[in-house]
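Researcher: Quick test of sequence recovery. Tokens follow.
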């Protein structure tokens, strides 16, 4: 049976790997991809999967347009059965140099925009009595203290708090919500990080029991399980994929 799924931030890194894997492995499903910019990778996916990849170039802060995109596609293809909310922005700056406006901006992008999407999906699904599995991509930063990452930490810990409360509220209405919290992953910023922050990179390796960064493909594999029908009894959980970092 064909299902409609959503991936935000599908243009690079973890979001791109998830989108590729969904299109390759879930051959009957339609994938609605959202990204604020279009690139060669997205163009390639549009050409290869022209009948199954529905791409929209849109900033998730444009709530009116985002909600309209969701409504139009759900009306056309049926309710979104799974969503991987990956879009967000990073911030690394000391607390003293982080303005209140910066905190607001990171929170708006990483938390409020995701809450908006979740509310739209939950409202639509519950109105029709349909199942929906929503997975937020969080970070170990949301539960661990990190130097110069307080703005990012606030946004991720708040997202996890929302997820847990919403999961309880809608547990009996066939709505699942979980968070996947990666550790340090070789995404689009990895090479620059390794080159420009060598000491910090070496420290992250020393703090990871497995002695390496993860890959986007490893995170994508886990994400696909978490939104699959095999994951039928998990809601309100934060799943860590961090090479053992949070086990210490």
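Model:
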């Amino acid at each position: 049976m064909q299902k409609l799924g959503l991936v935000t931030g599908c243009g690079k890194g973890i979001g791109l790997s998830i989108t590729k894997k969904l299109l390759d492995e879930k051959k009957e499903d339609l994938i609605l991809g959202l990204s604020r910019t279009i690139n060669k990778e997205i163009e390639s996916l549009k050409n290869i999967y022209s009948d199954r990849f529905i791409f929209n170039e849109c900033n998730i802060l444009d709530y009116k347009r985002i909600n309209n995109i969701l409504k139009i596609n759900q009306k056309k293809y049926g309710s979104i059965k799974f969503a991987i909310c990956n879009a967000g922005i990073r911030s690394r700056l000391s607390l003293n140099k982080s303005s209140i406006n910066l905190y607001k901006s990171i929170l708006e992008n990483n938390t409020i925009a995701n809450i908006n999407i979740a509310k739209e999906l939950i409202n639509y699904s519950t109105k029709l009595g349909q199942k929906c599995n929503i997975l937020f991509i969080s970070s170990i930063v949301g539960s661990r203290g990190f130097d110069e990452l307080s703005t990012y930490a606030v946004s991720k810990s708040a997202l996890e708090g929302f997820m847990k409360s919403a999961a309880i509220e809608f547990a009996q209405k066939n709505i699942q919500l979980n968070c996947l919290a990666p550790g340090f992953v070789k995404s689009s910023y990895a090479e620059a990080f390794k080159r420009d922050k060598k000491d910090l990179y070496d420290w992250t390796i020393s703090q990871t029991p497995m002695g390496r960064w993860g890959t986007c493909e490893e995170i994508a594999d886990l994400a696909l399980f978490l939104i699959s029908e095999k994951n039928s009894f998990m809601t309100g959980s934060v799943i860590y994929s961090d090479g053992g970092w949070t086990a210490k």
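The longest helix spans residues 100-128.
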